[in-house]
Amino acid sequence: MKIVAKIGPDISLLALPSEQIYVGDYVSIEDEDQNAMLIVQVCDEQYLDHLGTVEDMVRDEVLKAAAEGVESDPLDISSISHLIRDMRLLKCKIRGSVDGGRFTSNVSWLPSRVKAKIRRLPIAELMRLAGLNGSRSITLGEVGEAEMLRIFAESLDGRLNIITGRKESGKSHLAKLLATEMVRFGAYVFIFDLNNEYGGLAWNRDGSPSRSSEKTVILSPGNSMLFTLQYLGMSAVVGMLNHVLDMPGASLREFIRLWKLLESQKSLSMRALGDQIQTTRCNELVRDALFSRYHTMLSSGLFTDEQSFRIEDIFSKLPNGGLVVISLGGVSAHIRQMIVEIFLGKLVGLLESKRIPPVFLFAEEAHLYLRETYWDDIVTRMRHFGIFTTFITNQPDAINDGIYRQVDNIFLFNFTNDTDLEKIARVTMIDTDTVKSIVRTLPPRNCLALGHAVANLPIIVKVTQTETRNLGETRLFFNTEWAACPVQRST
Ligand SMILES: Nc1ncnc2c1ncn2[C@@H]1O[C@H](COP(=O)(O)OP(=O)(O)O)[C@@H](O)[C@H]1O
Ligand SMILES: [Mg+2]
Description:
Blueprint: E1 2-7, E2 10-15, E3 26-31, E4 36-47, H1 53-66, H2 77-85, E5 88-99, E6 102-104, E7 117-120, H3 123-129, E8 137-143, E9 147-152, E10 161-164, H4 171-184, E11 188-193, E12 216-219, H5 229-243, H6 249-264, H7 270-279, H8 284-300, H9 311-317, E13 322-327, H10 333-352, E14 359-364, H11 372-385, E15 387-393, H12 401-406, E16 409-412, H13 418-427, H14 432-439, E17 446-451, E18 459-463, H15 481-484, H16 486-490
Parallel strand pairs: 10-15, 10-16, 11-13, 11-14, 12-13, 14-15
Antiparallel strand pairs: 1-2, 2-5, 3-4, 3-7, 4-5, 5-6, 8-9, 8-18, 16-17, 17-18
The structure holds adenosine-5'-diphosphate and magnesium ion.
């Protein structure tokens, strides 16, 4: 390989067709005189647009057509000419340089076009040069033919992550991989599971219990997750009434009064609350408002007057980390929001009083249940207390720009749609050209890892397969018994 040109952060390299180097690969340009190494990434490849190449090709084709069968090339010129036609121009981006053994993103020198030694840089060496370290390694997947990409669990700790890409590209799969690996290292991972698919992590595909089986807790609302009012406390319940059930101010005040009254009588329960609303003397409209919310709470099946589910019990029961799946599939949008509101409110309370360690939160399609004002809260206040979120979405525009600006790691799967590409290219931490040229052609299960976890060096990785059972697949009509006997059904 040779350097052809450098314009700003772009470098063009000339490569022979036989040189095995592809889009996404890293290349080192070593200049011994400067005792430094430039690190560039191939972002696109083109044919060499050499003057006369096209003319040559046209002449060749015409000759072939005119004098078929006559082929005499004693000096073997055609093979050289073919080689020239297949020469590739690799469009690369400068990612940094290694100067005196230290990686910097500041590049203020130009390598020699004549003497520079150019070679493909293996990923392990790249990560070592970039100074990536940690002790808890997670194998993310394959890079190129035979290399593996390892990231460190520490690089996700205290961070905000986004996994995005189009439908079926492998986002949830990566989320599951990260979640199980974090749990393996003793972390607590809470998952808002929209399609009830994360429960499969407790099982291997052959039906045997998986490595994280003992650490998995599946919480289904109204089943294993029932709260008493006492446990939730007034602020969590009032927060839910206010934000999810849109309770007007006057009714909220009345509710608070009733709550305090019941509390002072030490008789706080759903039943007593219902009785109290019925017998209290207040405006009819206020009573109606209270009643309708009360009934929503009753029918949600989230509340009980008996034993309450306690979030902190998970931590004492699972001292070595836990995977807590909160099943939100199959419940109505309203109840989903109520659960999330209650859960996050309570979790923040526990973290604030330092009764539980920091937790990781995986949220799929969070715009479906996370209210507007929570978004900023998650990246600022909640993060400060110790909720480290990973958003997973196939709609990049569902996440607002403020969040993207704070994000530490992005795992970007394929997008072909121009609007989505445009959006994601604009908000990621690297240049628009790279995102557009690489992401558009990513096959399923391959992602572009960006950010802290990969030392800010974008890397294309084929996410590794896992042993665990795959739930949450779309139920297809032609796979059901309905499709097998359409004739009988019609009769
Ligand atoms: N790296 C992978 N190795 C093996 N199977 C995968 C991989 N990534 C995704 N899959 C499978 O592809 C399908 C779609 O992946 P999924 O993660 O559910 O997509 P998404 O969440 O992006 O819609 C699933 O059946 C999943 O098991
Ligand atoms: Mg998914």
